## 1
Amino acid sequence: MNRLLLAAYPKSYRSRQGEELLACLAEAYPGRSWPPPREVAALACAGVQARARATVDDTTRPWWLDGIHLAALALAALALVPYLQDVWHWALHIDPGQHAIAFHFSGWYPWAGGPTRIRLLPYGLLPLGCLIALLRGKAWIALPAAAAMIWAGATTHGRTLFGDEGKAGLSYYGLGAPITARDLALSGALCAACAVLALCRPSRLRRRSYRWLVPVVLAMSVAGGLHIISVSPAFQRGLFVLEVAALLGAWVATAATGDYRWLIPVAAVAIVRTQAIVVRPDAFMQSFPDLVVLLLLIAPLPALAIAAQRRQGQAFAE
């Protein structure tokens, strides 16, 4: 089990010091397959820092281009999350009936039973395709998918293609107002980021392994198998935990390197969500006071900037 902790470290670190780290853990905690929680947290934090330093040391691309790439990935994931169940059911030809997400009818595919209002594709295929293309560094493929998201939200001609869910159904519903496909701030920001990436020599973009899609497939399986929709408490709690972990990871990476690239995706997500709150202030989650929600959205930005500035100051002093 200790080898799972090595996954937090970059490949170069694992090849050089992986066996030494495993030997130290076996010596420090004999007979245990897993170190204490405090040690696990420390090792995970050190792994994030090592990965961040390796990213900064890679000078094949400017920091701002990498930051925009990360922002586009975060926005594509943000747009996909509410439709995990929908895409899973479509891929496996499952008719969820009354468990469908925010639909007013059941049997919403040509092959499904019951009263139908036929649509051909789930709206979630658009952000999914965009996410896969961005992971592989192919912004020229992600750009048309992001543009199609804008078209689906801005027009009424695609109702047969994507159905009502692609037009006005519930979309992202996190620590703020719900964002529907009709709200073009999310899809517009994603399209703008993809356009910048496509114009700035896409060959310089970082290409990530398809293994990064394994958590997405697992999330689809859980959401589809348990019929977890975006307004359910389980969805909200799980998404909150993921967001907190992502923010902590961004803070650790920024504090370790003094690099501003991780500020860009945090800022992009915060702007999109704050815009939804400003447009629909009456749609806040009832379990969070408005002030707390705004603080959770805005506070990470100056915190990351201060962490980067302090790190740069320490490096200059040294």
## 2
Amino acid sequence: MRYRLTFGEKVFDALNYIVLLIACAAVMLPFLYIIASSLSSPEALIRGEVTFWPKGLNLTNYQVVMENKVFWRSFGITLFIVVVGTAVNMFMTVVTAYPLAKQGLKGKNIILLLIVFTMIFQAPMIPTYLIVKNLHLLNTVWALIIPGAISAFNMFICLTFFRSLPEELFEAARVDGMKEFSILWRIAVPLSTPIMVTLILFYAVSHWNNYFSALLYINDFKQRPLQLYLYNLIAQFNMNEEMASLVESNVVLSPQGLQMATILVATVPILLVYPFIQKHFIKGALIGSIKE
């Protein structure tokens, strides 16, 4: 016999659908507006006629972005920070979490207490800036990588997952003569693929979206990452030399359209990565949250 929903269950489902639709709209509508503005004609943008559908199809904005050397230089810097920074983050997280997951480590509780302390009381901005300055990291990409080489929160997620792995497997490997470093990289890490992919996504998105650290530590125009470039383009309403030269050569452009096209081109790469790791991300997030 087919189960029939009660009136209360129907109301609950209806409210769930409404809330989910509102949440989807809140996420998608601004994105649709960006797409529509980037594809609309300057006249339509000036008159405020653009909502969620482009008016007067115009691809000049994307042509300008694709030919903008300053944009691609910032894009390359950000790509380097994401790849190298995420690799550094993962190495530091794994080599910190693995020994702390073991019962026999002396002083483990004190180390964990100190790590928790950094989560509650974070270093102030000025002392951190002075440290970065004294290490001669200002105006280098390393100022955006080394100070945040490890996240305490992500380390605890990784530690929790390592604790869930069977200790008997590691004991068997030790009996066979494997060293701890080999056990970590040949057994523990391959068995932790879901949580590793999850942490890689966390770190990569954090590096990709990080502009505040660049705002503090990067003053060199040629060392600006992508998010700082977007910040200057939007908040300060700046147009680089390539865009200005096109405006002077009788190419009709809208600053708003250029901004939207630049934002969209800068956002697409990170959006394309997520579908390929979604399965591992969801599994890793769930396991990391419920395992003890």
## 3
Amino acid sequence: MARNNQDTYASYQRDEFDNPPQGPVGAHRGKTSLASRIMPYFIVVIVAALVGALAWGVYSGEASHIRMPWSTSASSSAPKAKSAAPSAKDKTDTDKTDTPSTSASPSQKDSESPEASSSPSSSALQQTVNKNTAIVVTNATSISGHAAQRASALTQNGYTSVSSRNASGQIPSATVVMYQNEVDKATAQDVANTLGISLVEQVPTIAGPVVVVLLD
């Protein structure tokens, strides 16, 4: 015959677990505040905004202009280095500004034509030559009518007061065009060019403004 054991609640000995305390048992959570409930959503919105701003900055290239806190010292020292050591171009520009140019540069002098540097400018002579100046052509040669012939050449060149005569008194050693005052220098030079005479001298003691002495 099989044994039929039926254990019931009353068959066990009672202990402290059979007399639980009154009231709720276990962990209990109190009411949470409104700020605590919305804080996770707020954090999610902030993180999403930062991620969106970072993505836009990388895509548009604006992220390269953002200054990081650790780059402040490097960026602030750069202008000091630049101001302490100006570039060669800035120094050259400063020298050009502070030092006014008082003479033409060698390159400008070299660019002038040889004709202008070797002889007076024709336009300058025309501005100062006075063809109404009294000019005396003296003949110190043995050729008769030589002074009159050369005087005629001056008249054909536009001179209005030209006379000729034979030389007397002290005679120079070479054919020369002499002028009395500085204002007659340009006229004397033009007379010399017209007659093909190379020597032009200022002699304050001559009898007229311009005197030509022909020895050949």
## 4
Amino acid sequence: MEESISGFKVRGDWGDVVEHGERIALALRETGADGDAFYEFDDWRPKSHERIDEDVSEKTAEQASVGEGEGEQAGKSPGEDLQTAGEKLTESYEKVEENDTESAMESWGESIGHVARAADSASRKALRKVEDTVYRKVMTQMAPYYFDNELVSANIQEVGRGEGGETFVFEVNVNDDELKDEVSDILAEYESEIDRWHVEAEKRTEDVAAAEGVEPPEEEGGPDSTMT
């Protein structure tokens, strides 16, 4: 592993980059990282059973996507918001005829709000569709697969392919300098104290459980179980 101002970097085969991701996830956990940002990275980092051009590509496209707007979060489509906007506009006219100016203005404002929310939802969906297509078809051919949130910034790139297999470079930077120093110290301990790192493998307990007629055990794994 190489350490620099830009992060913790490893170059090697798929097993090497998987191990690198596991070590950093476990080191982060040891520092007390336990929020959404940590679990987002833990989900995105490459796994032993995954492929970079399929699984990591899909996860990168998902995390890079434009987030949901207020209308989508409320479960309303642009059409539904426009319909509500029309109803509120009609209600506003009725209040004007009743000389209820205050209620008329309130309904008119709500109508405008629903129109704006409909436009926002429609534009987000259009951007998301273009984003996904461009990312999958173009960007993954030109740039590394990347991840970015408030906790870490990471990227992985295939840099070679030969008789010995594929070669990758995987770099992860911890965005907070103090936390980065803690992670660096923990990674150094792993290097000096752990003789062999057992890379996690996907556990398929469902098939065995079905054959034996028992309930599958609770799922193990994650960054807590990579070290032996």
